[in-house]
UniProtKB/TrEMBL annotation:
Gene name for this UniProt entry: LOC100906066
Entry keywords, A to Z: Endoplasmic reticulum, ER-Golgi transport, Golgi apparatus, Transport
UniProt source species: Galendromus occidentalis
UniProt KW Repeat keyword: no
PANTHER family in the cross-refs: TRAFFICKING PROTEIN PARTICLE COMPLEX SUBUNIT 2
UniProt subunit comment: Part of the multisubunit transport protein particle (TRAPP) complex.
Gene Ontology CC terms, in alphabetical order: endoplasmic reticulum; Golgi apparatus; perinuclear region of cytoplasm; TRAPP complex
Entry's family note: Belongs to the TRAPP small subunits family. Sedlin subfamily.
Recorded superkingdom: Eukaryota
Subcellular location: Cytoplasm, Perinuclear region; Endoplasmic reticulum; Golgi apparatus, cis-Golgi network; Golgi apparatus
Gene3D superfamilies: 3.30.450.70
Protein name: Trafficking protein particle complex subunit
Origin organism lineage: Eukaryota, Metazoa, Ecdysozoa, Arthropoda, Chelicerata
Any matching Pfam family: Sedlin_N
Length: 143
């Protein structure tokens, strides 16, 4: 199950953050947010290390960013440098396939595209869309 999810803009400011940690358990929430933040360095490293011009159909899914004792972090970068990071519990990470992960990222990317296509959305502001939230809820529930 996904335990945290972040959508980060090209300037590394959060557009959307979500954890499943209980509000009373601030330590877990802080740990998850810290991991999301530190994963941005890995995302930047992977994006910058890709060779430009070599098969311009670069894969948007970065795969595993890094793994810890309890969690695996996965990344995705859009063509406009919007970053999506998902943290999955390690026991669950073994159970799902690469296709499932790509499906999650594609659904989030599509939901984000719908949000920014809304003429009332101001670019760079926090995402507060009910439709986007429904997609996130569905992904966070999947096991």
């Amino acid at each position: 199950m996904a335990v945290a999810l972040a959508l980060i803009n090209k300037d590394n400011s959060p557009l959307y953050l979500r954890t499943v940690a209980e509000p009373a358990n601030g330590e877990v929430a802080h740990k998850l947010l810290y991991m999301l933040h530190t994963s941005l360095d890995v995302v930047e490293e992977k994006v910058n290390s890709s060779v430009p011009g070599k098969n311009d159909s670069r894969d948007l899914c970065l795969g595993v960013l890094y793994s810890l004792d309890e969690y695996k972090l996965y990344g995705y970068v859009t063509n406009t440098k919007i970053k999506i990071v998902i943290i999955v519990e390690l026991g669950v990470a073994v159970q799902f396939r690469d296709n499932d992960l790509r499906n999650w990222f594609n659904r989030l990317h599509q939901a984000y595209t719908e949000v920014i296509s809304n003429p009332f959305y101001v670019a760079g502001e926090e995402i507060k869309s009910k439709k986007f939230e429904a997609v996130v809820n569905d992904i966070m529930r999947k096991q």
